[in-house]
Write a structure and sequence with these properties.
It is a single chain. This protein is an all-alpha fold. The protein has a single domain (66-291), classed as MetI-like fold. 75% of the residues lie in helices and 1% in strands. It has 13 helices and two strands. The protein has a two-stranded antiparallel sheet with strand order 1-2. A hairpin with a 7-residue loop joins strand 1 and strand 2 (51-52). Helix 3 (65-96) runs antiparallel to helix 10 (212-227) and helix 4 packs across helix 7 (157-182). The longest helix has 38 residues, at 2-39. The chain is globular and about 75 Å long.
């Protein structure tokens, strides 16, 4: 009987300890998700009562060329950002994994942009990209080259944002690759040295295959972060020029909080989330198969 009583008391204590998270989950995760699902079948601008409209939001969505332009912009960003981020992060991780002077300082230095506010970083890069007064164009002028309209050109605006986002986030993925590098057994490299393998052969036949799980994680996290692109175009370009930096998240935000189309924004959000899930599943399968 004493044992049963202790088990019951232990269960009560565990339940009480878990209550804060249960409350958090219900209020900030479960309720918004259920409410958003209800919204997709309604027309609502926050002020007036909800009006049930069935699947009209989805019909409107598939006729909305601007939304699919925003999705295309986001995919263009990912095509530039993810390979650039992986290459730079892996290169930095390989360098920081070697015995160099002030290695701890450089590790902290590369990670510093990750913890800085995204808005602050965006404003700084907006000044760097300025056509007449930006530091980048001033350096180009000093070198005898013409400055570029980094944020004013439809062809350069999204690549410019991708470069800035890479600089902001590369420190996190450098740390992940560094952890993966340090988990590779040293005897593999020693055996390769005995066989006469050079650094390039060791990198492609030992390092990269051993980093497969880390690579999958980095690709998935980069993809999720890329699909969440919002602050950078919101602050730097407002989605311009010519809607070429209008990301899907920014478009959904505008529909909800600028135009007051809450139900339509909810439908866009669910559809966009489905796209993200499909892309991540495909990436996981493809990257995992290549590393197998």
């Amino acid at each position: 009987m004493n044992l049963i009583r202790k088990i019951k008391n232990s269960n009560k204590f565990g339940f009480l300890m878990s209550m804060p998270y249960v409350v958090y989950f219900l209020i900030f995760l479960a309720f918004p998700l259920v409410f958003s699902f209800v919204l997709i079948f309604h027309k609502w601008n926050i002020i007036t009562p909800m009006e049930f409209i069935g699947v009209d939001n989805f019909v409107r969505m598939f006729q909305d060329a601007k939304f699919f332009r925003a999705i295309l912009n986001t995919l263009i960003f990912l095509v530039i950002h993810i390979p650039l981020q992986i290459i730079i992060a892996l290169l930095l991780a390989v360098l920081l994994n070697k015995k160099i002077k002030m290695r701890g300082f450089f590790r902290a230095l590369y990670f510093l942009p990750v913890i800085v506010s995204g808005v602050v970083v965006t404003i700084i890069w907006q000044q760097l990209y300025a056509y007449e007064t930006g530091l980048i164009n001033l350096v180009l002028n000093k070198l005898g080259l013409s400055g570029l309209p980094w944020l004013n050109s439809p062809d350069l605006a999204m690549p410019s944002i991708a470069i800035m986002a890479t600089w902001k986030n590369v420190g996190l993925y450098t740390v992940l690759f560094l952890v993966g590098l340090q988990s590779i057994p040293h005897y593999l490299y020693e055996a390769a040295d005995i066989d006469g393998a050079n650094e390039t052969q060791k990198f492609f036949h030992i390092t990269l295959p051993a980093l497969n799980n880390t690579m999958v994680l980095v690709v998935i996290l980069s993809t999720i972060g890329g699909f969440s692109l919002f602050v950078e175009p919101f602050v730097m370009t407002g989605g311009g020029p010519m809607n070429r930096t209008l990301s899907a998240m920014l478009y959904i935000y505008n529909q909800a909080f600028y135009f007051g189309h809450m139900g339509y924004a909810a439908a866009l959000g669910f559809f966009f989330a489905a796209i993200v899930m499909v892309v991540i599943l495909i990436q996981k399968k493809v990257v995992g198969r290549q590393g197998a």
